[in-house]
Amino acid sequence: MFKSVSFYTDKIKSLKRFYGNIMNLNITEAANDRFTVQIGESTITFIQSERKAFYHFAINIPGNQFSMMKDWMQNRLSLNRENGRDEVYFRSFDADSMYFEDPAGNIIELIGRRKRDLFGDLSVASFLNISEISITTPNVASVGEDIQDFGIPLFGSTNVIADELNFLGKGDTFIVLVPPGRRWYFSKTKSETHPLEITLEDGRKININEEGEISFFNE
User: Fold this and answer.
1) What CA–CA distance (Å, rounded) separates 27 from 16?
2) What is the strand order of the sheet 154-155 is part of?
3) Which residue blocks in 12-139 are alpha helix, DSSP H?
4) In this structure, are strands 2-9 and 42-48 parallel, antiparallel, or unpaired?
5) Which DSSP state fits 183?
6) What is the arrangement of strands in the sheet containing 214-217, beginning at the earlier edge strand?
7) What is the pTM of this model?
8) Chain center to CA of 207
């Protein structure tokens, strides 16, 4: 579903070093005020901002490489923990997850999809694509309706729930819609509203502004 996403940060240099040197991902474009990192079939662009911002996003990885990836990540950084655990299995998605944070406080989740395998050693190809992008807004109900009207279905429920996590999408890619002030799983951080831009595979775009208001653009 996701072709690209743009986030904002006040720590552009630290993030560039983190994604290029710690996670060994390919930096495809770079300038003084932004850089783009390749995540399999997707890209993430970080744009310099005076305002501090953080987000939650997830990356799909092959389920059969989850343990290898976990060992590899633990040699580079500390995984987040929840109730003494540093990984969790989600039955509804048939997937295992681990969590960590980058220098800007972005909460990153690696999701091992048990039905997706990649044989061979770990490599940059093990980062398959962007799995989840969070949108934090005080207008969860109306934004959720707008996203569905844009053609992205609600997953696992018949109605958007204003004070809970809501997944919109299908397969293994989702927008995660959440209100401000909700603690992120495997983190002490509570959700905040920050601007972002999403470009879908078909070229359509979704923008969220600083107030959590949504706008849509067709290709």
Assistant:
1) 8
2) 88-90, 95-101, 107-113, 56-62, 129-136, 173-178, 166-170, 154-155
3) 12-17, 66-74
4) parallel
5) B
6) 27-31, 34-39, 42-48, 2-9, 196-200, 205-208, 214-217
7) 0.96
8) 15
SS3 66: helix
Residue 174's nearest CA partner among 63, 57, 36 is 57
How far apart, in Å, do the first and last CA atoms of the chain sit? 14
CB proximity list for 134: less than 8 A, separation 6 or greater: 55, 56, 57, 175, 176, 177, 178, 191
Q: How far is CA 118 from CA 24, 68, 96, in A?
A: 18, 12, 15
Say which DSSP state 126 is in: G
How does pLDDT run across 79-99, given as a tens digit for each residue?
Answer: 999 999 999 999 989 999 999
Residue 83, C-beta contacts closer than 8 angstroms, at least 6 positions apart: none
pLDDT digits (tens, 9 = 90+) for 141-196: 999 999 999 999 999 888 999 999 999 999 999 999 999 999 999 999 999 999 99
Length of the chain: 219
CA distance 12 to 46: 7
